[in-house]
Each structure stands twice: as structure tokens, then as C-alpha cells.
Amino acid sequence: MEENMKKLEDLMDQDDGFLEALFGKETAEEVQAFLNGKGVSLTLEEIDQQRDFLVKAMEADAAGEELSEEEMDKVAGGKLYRGRSRRPADYDPTAPKPFPW
Q1: Does some domain include residue 84?
Q2: Per the domain annotation, does 10 fall within a domain?
Q3: CA 69 to CA 7: how far, in whole Å?
Q4: Alpha helices of 15-91 — where are they, by DSSP H?
Q5: Nearest 5 degrees, angle CA 89-CA 91-CA 96?
Q6: pLDDT digits (tens, 9 = 90+) for 12-65
Q7: What distance in Å separates the CA atoms of residue 56 and residue 61, rounded to the nearest whole number?
Q8: Is 46 left (phi over 0), alpha (psi -120 to 50) or beta?
């Protein structure tokens, strides 16, 4: 999984539209197919874990809170919330379900 997380981090760094496209997927299966097409192979369980950490990170960010270093490291290696927010522009922290998948 570590190699795949590195690939995922690289995609986030290199492609500004990557997160928008990723968060636009409706199901974990769609996310998995999208990532496979980008050379990142994650199980549905790993995708669910990343979603949970992303939601937590975005909620903390919206509330002006900071995650611990350990928590940030769990979010795709911490790349999403170290230094600047990389959340989708239309993210609504008050929405009951931030990501359908």
C-alpha cells in the first residue's frame, strides 16, 4: 500500500484537477476504477479508510482545528493538509455526507 500511497501523493502534487475528479466519483468502486486507471491500486477497504481520514481532515480544517501529525500522516501521507488546503472548491463541511463513496 505504501507504494500506491506515494503514487497517489504524486498525482495530487502534479495534477490540479485530480482531486476534483476523484471527489466527483459516486461509489468506492468508481474511485477504485479511476485510481486503477492512474496506476494506483487500492482495495475498497483502503479507499474507505482514506475517505474517513479525508472527511475528518476537511471537517477539522473547516472548524479551524488542526489534526495531529499522526492523523495527517494517515491522509494519503499527509499531503492534503500540510501547508495548504487541497479540498475541492465546492466542499461543504455542513453537508451530511461529504463524499458519496
Answers
A1: no
A2: yes
A3: 21
A4: 18-23, 28-37, 44-62, 69-74
A5: 170
A6: 888 888 888 988 898 999 999 999 999 999 999 988 888 887 777 778 777 887
A7: 9
A8: alpha
